[in-house]
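Example 4.3 (complexes with small molecules)
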Amino acid sequence: EKRSYDIHIAPIELDGEPHAIGVFYDVTQIERLERVRQEFLSNISHELRTPLTSILAFVETLEDGAIDDKANNRRFLSTIRRNAERMHGLIADILELSLIESGNVTVDFKDVRLRELVQDVFTSLSSLASERKIELINNVEAGKRVLADPVRLEQMITNLIDNAIKFNRNTGTVSVTCERRGRRDLIAVTDTGEGILAEHQQRIFERFYRADRGRTREVGGTGLGLAIVKHLAKLHGGEVSVYSKLSEGSTFLVELPA
Ligand code: ADP
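Answer. The structure with adenosine-5'-diphosphate bound is encoded below.
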């Protein structure tokens, strides 16, 4: 690994001979954090600027007379609303992530009925799925319980199922299963979408990382969903991983200590 040092050297006389003494400060970590911070700021600015530019453009168009254009004025307003909602969602995700990262979120472990929780998430995402004729399949055994914070677990499963719908093909399926392996419960969310290239698979859990920028913007993602899932899984003492084959679909696996 490449490391960076801050070096201070001073002349010194030892036994009447001139020497030099140097102090090496390892600043690798500080530089890395600085880079992460800069990237984060530039990502946030970029993500906010895109919808904001669109809002301003449509407001100007309305001001310039389109407000009386009966055929289009409502359409322009709904574009403004959609972009404002996008910014709203982005800010909510950023706040959520920073709250989790600051360590101010506690996990309130309960015995959660998983099948019912998955069904609730399916219900709240059903219109998104039916728009594209995607079938939602709950394969979690009746009576299955896992140890987790119910609110946080629902948030994780919602983000994963939401992605599984968004990145699916029309008339595809999303299925959820859960099995016990050793001392862990493995919750799997599987889709029949386009899959994820191996080179992206590790990076998609990073904040703002998207495998396909153009396409994801189209489906309306913030690039923060999986970062939130990863942090929440860790808070539970578990983890999240992905298995995917291009053009065959993806499976996201949440492991929770049983
Ligand atoms: P987004 O808000 O863009 O969905 P996420 O953090 O949830 O952000 O996901 C990051 C990226 O990972 C997505 O933009 C997409 O490229 C990829 N991704 C996530 N889930 C899936 C999936 N089920 N199938 C294919 N690609 C996915």
